[in-house]
Design goal:
- The chain has 441 residues and is of the alpha+beta class.
- It has two domains: 112 residues, Uridine Diphospho-n-acetylenolpyruvylglucosamine Reductase, domain 3 (2-Layer Sandwich), CATH 3.30.465; 204 residues, FAD-linked oxidases, C-terminal domain (Vanillyl-alcohol Oxidase, Chain A, domain 3, 3-Layer(aba) Sandwich).
- The chain has 14 helices and 20 strands.
- An eight-stranded antiparallel β-sheet has the order 16-13-15-14-18-19-17-20, sandwiched between helices. A five-stranded antiparallel β-sheet has the order 6-7-11-9-10.
- Helix 7 runs antiparallel to helix 8 and helix 10 runs antiparallel to helix 11.
- The two termini are 25 Å apart.
- The relative contact order is 0.14.
């Protein structure tokens, strides 16, 4: 019998591990790591496989966390909730809500596991808020020697500063303790605006809302803006009617987009016309609902993505430069560009480390060529100090990444001390961090 096959959601990565294990607890993860070391095999943990890179791939032991989805404990008074590392975000939101709690910020996709999301630097938007990893209070993880340890701001603070966005390079996270806030209602206000106006007022618009982002379809002159604001406790919610949700988020944003992208694959010349039509179809709407429902949206069309964190002041120029490239290029870009904001943080490999940040995410339909476009965007972003999202496509190596992260050398030194044999490394991590463990474990 051949080796098992693992693929990520986007089908950009395939791995053939020597074996796949499904631990159900931290102790079982520790035992699996110890067995792998005895057998001379490397180890990687995989959650939902929503990263576009090879960050979770291995030819050794693949730990699937699909049996580690439990709530461990919830302390409503302190706002601290501990869940196992394999807890999917789409289950976490309703679970927290049932305890009168919520995460203060989320991304717009909820298919990831909590450990995968924090480990790759997943974020939402909010000029005064950090990414998901800034909401972590404590981690439990298994190190390369098979020990099960905890880290927090007060216990192993160096490990905590690194492991919250640890890329899976420091160990296997087994539980995550989140610092939550009381459950809240968000009012979403979505409306089209001219691209030029949004770029000219980008900082003002981001500061005026609790959460602000916009989508721009290449070849069009307008964007869809999304503003989410917190409402006072007790405010009556006004969610979207079911028909409107189905029409906007399922039919238009997924069904029609899929058909349009397929048509563009066969007849690339129509892509600019389709994009301009899509920009007109996405009209205004206002509604309010539980925060976890407003933050996230269904994303069923398969795509390729690259995302870059740039200094906040540079974001308008970055988008303008991408626009100039799309107008000159013979590539046809069928997916919108998404722009979001985040506050500076102190997590060593966070893309927002030490600076207020804007994130620019570019996408391409999976049936269309993506590499020329994403490489061009990489060059544009690199010229302004852009830092790549660890779970999304880029071609930088450790030499290029080191000067962009002030604590990069500290992270690598900690990795080399914690995992001298490279138990948790793989080709992607060897590229972005430099080789670890030149000999088999």
């Amino acid at each position: 019998m051949g080796r098992p096959v693992w693929r990520n959601w986007a089908r950009t990565e395939t791995a053939r591990p020597a074996r796949v294990e499904h631990p159900a607890s931290g102790e079982e993860v520790a035992e699996a790591v110890q067995r792998a070391v005895r057998d001379g095999l490397r180890v990687k943990a995989a959650g939902a496989g929503h990263s576009f890179t090879g960050i979770a791939g291995t030819d050794g032991v693949l730990l699937r966390l699909d049996r580690m989805e439990r709530l461990v404990r919830a302390d409503r008074d302190r706002g601290l909730v501990t869940v196992q590392a394999g807890m999917p975000l789409h289950r976490l939101g309703p679970l927290l809500d049932a305890h009168g709690l919520a995460m203060e910020n989320l991304g717009d996709i909820d298919r990831q596991t909590i450990s995968g999301a924090i480990s790759t630097g997943t974020h939402g938007t909010g000029a005064r808020l950090g990414g998901l990893a800034t909401q972590v209070h404590e981690l439990e993880l298994v190190l390369a020697d098979g020990s099960l340890v905890r880290c927090s701001a007060g216990e192993r603070p160096g490990l905590f500063a690194a492991a919250r966005v640890g890329l899976g390079a420091l160990g296997v996270i087994t539980t995550v303790t989140l610092r939550c806030v009381p459950a809240f209602t968000l009012r979403a206000t979505e409306r089209p605006m001219p691209l030029g106006e949004v770029l000219d007022r980008a900082g003002e618009l981001a500061d005026a809302a609790d959460h602000f982002e916009f989508y721009w379809f290449p070849y069009s002159s307008s964007v869809l803006t999304k503003r989410n604001d917190r409402l006072p406790p007790g405010t009556q919610r006004q969610p979207l009617p079911r028909w409107r949700y189905w029409w906007d988020d399922e039919l238009i944003s997924n069904g029609v987009l899929e058909l349009a992208c397929r048509a563009g694959t066969r007849v690339p010349v129509i892509v600019p016309h389709v994009n301009r039509l899509a920009a007109r179809l996405l009209g205004s709407r206002t509604y309010s609902d539980a925060s976890y429902r407003v933050f996230t949206s269904p994303r069923r069309v398969v795509f390729r993505e690259s995302e870059w964190a740039v200094p906040r002041a540079a974001v308008a120029d970055a988008v303008r430069e991408i626009r100039r490239w799309t107008e000159r290029s013979d590539q046809r870009i069928a997916f919108p560009i998404e722009v979001r904001w985040a506050a500076a943080d102190d997590i060593w490999l966070s893309a927002a480390y030490g600076r207020d940040t804007a994130y620019v995410a570019v996408h391409q339909y999976h049936r269309l060529p993506h590499e020329p476009y994403l490489r061009a965007v990489q060059a544009i972003m690199s010229a302004i100090g852009g830092r790549p999202h660890w779970g999304k496509l880029h071609w930088l190596d450790a030499a290029a990444l080191r000067p962009r992260y002030p604590r990069f050398a500290d992270f690598v030194a900690l990795r080399d001390k914690a995992d001298p044999a490279g138990v948790f490394t793989n080709p992607y991590l060897d590229r972005v961090l430099g080789p670890a463990g030149r000999e088999p474990p």
